[in-house]
Amino acid sequence: HAARFFLHNGLHGFLALGAVVLCVTGCEALYADMGHFGKKPIRISWFSLALPGLLCNYFGQGALILADPRTVADPFYSLVPPALLYPMVALATAATIIASQAIISGVFSLTRQAIQLGFMPRMRIIHTSAMAEGQVYIPEINAMMLVAALALTLVFKESEGLAGAYGIDVTADMFITSVMFFLIARRVWGWPLVKALVPALLFWLVDGSFFGSCLAKLMQGGWFPVLVGLCFMLLMATWWDGWKMLAAKVFKMRLPLDRFIGRIVWEKPVRSRGTGVFLSTFRREIPPMLLYQLNHTKALHEKVVILSILTEEVPEVAEEQQLEMRYLGKGVYRLKAHYGFMETPTAPWILAQAKAQGLKVDLAEVKYYIGRMALIPAKRPTMPRWQRFLFLFMYRNAVSPVVFYSIPPEDVLELGIQVEF
Q1: Regions of the chain where pLDDT drops below 70
Q2: How confident is the model at residue 29, as a pLDDT?
Q3: Listing from the earlier edge strand, what are the strands of the sheet with 270-279?
Q4: Residue 420: enclosing H or E segment and its boundaries?
Q5: What is the DSSP letter of 314?
Q6: What φ, ψ does residue 243 adopt, rounded to 5°?
Q7: Cα dihedral 390→396→399→402 (10° resolution)
Q8: What is the Cα–Cα distance from 316 to 283, expressed in whole angstroms?
Q9: Dihedral, CA atoms, 316, 360, 370, 308, nearest 10 degrees?
Q10: Between the CA of residue 368 and those of 54, 269, 283, 309, what are the distances in Å?
């Protein structure tokens, strides 16, 4: 029936895909939650509730139009008599709210992954479930989505424009996902070209057809998701490039671990009671703030823990591979915590795990040292002025590591350094 429809209607049949794309996006939104709930709950909810409900609804609309072609203008609300119109509106509103939850959860998860991978500034992440690690809430993103939803309603006013924007948005996402599947199958899983190309071509045919059909609505609201996507690409690229340039400057202040231990042996600094934990982004060197303290105070804690919380390019890291601990001598420990981009570690929990694995530390006497960089305008900026302004805006509004890693504020000391940027 589908092939006969396209052969009979030609270009009009192809463009009709853009009108029925909302039938597909509901399924896509359901499967977007698979990362939060797993395969089994999705399969149960799909086969027992969502699929039968969708079939009854769409088949009912089709039967209604065949029986009375005049209802083609609004078949959904024509399914019920006029007396049930308002209950039907309430039902549609409830369905909209339920469907939006998958999108909202997806936005929270993607934002957290972008933060962990270094493409977005740090934001406050709240875990909403003690059982499902992927269920998170980000207040800043929730507020942004509220403003965006109100702005969309005021600008487009009618659902037709929003349908065009939503169609291009979702079908483009589906097509990009299919391309990523092919790349992962080839480069990560090592599939032969033919084995990866056969399913990819099937996906590209379906997703590309829907996307191409929705492109006809580019000027009828479809431009909006394209504009939003380009803006987010600009923000992410600016944050990534800015941090790379900043890291290159900070990297010049580094000191190898063995030379640092040699300085302790030679200078014999005063050792105060307790444990000092220095957060570091370096994998092999001493963080600049630790050198700053040694140079200016000539003192160190009895125990010094250099803690690096490293995000790996995998969703989750096995528990037995998360902590890497090494004793360097003179009371200095090197602790590396490896986590996936779907995990949000906390510094006190990491120290508690390290203590359970043999780190001799009194958690009640731990002080955390955080570095704060004051960026001073350089004589020869390495970034365009507008991009530097954008990076500085995000940098100043990023959440402190104290909040991001759930460190008790009363146990934190900040050491500031000035860097030309």
Answers
A1: 26-37, 130-134, 161, 253-254, 283
A2: 65
A3: 323-329, 332-340, 299-312, 270-279, 366-376, 412-420
A4: strand 412-420
A5: S
A6: -70, -35
A7: 150
A8: 20
A9: -30
A10: 54, 19, 18, 14
45-57 pLDDT tens trace: 889 988 898 889 9
How far is C-alpha 371 from the geometric centre of its chain's CA atoms?
A: 25
Rounded-to-integer distance, Cα 348 and Cα 327, Å: 19
CA distances from 276 to 145, 178, 256, 280, 369 (A): 40, 48, 19, 13, 7
Residue written as token pair 């120290």: 351
Q: Compute CA distances 187 → 183, 192, 201, 238, 311, whole Å.
A: 6, 10, 17, 27, 21
Alpha helices in 20-83 (DSSP H): 21-32, 34-37, 39-45, 51-67, 75-78
- Relative to beta strand 412-420, strand 126-127 is unpaired
CA dist 288 and 294 (Å) reads 10
State the pLDDT at residue 30.
67
Task: Please give the angle made by the CA atoms of 312, 315 and 321, to the nearest 5 degrees.
Answer: 55
Q: What one-letter code names the amino acid at 132?
A: A
Condensed to tens digits (0 to 9), the pLDDT of residues 149-199 reads 888 888 887 777 677 777 888 888 889 989 999 999 999 999 999 999 999
Q: Residue for token digits 């998360």?
A: 322
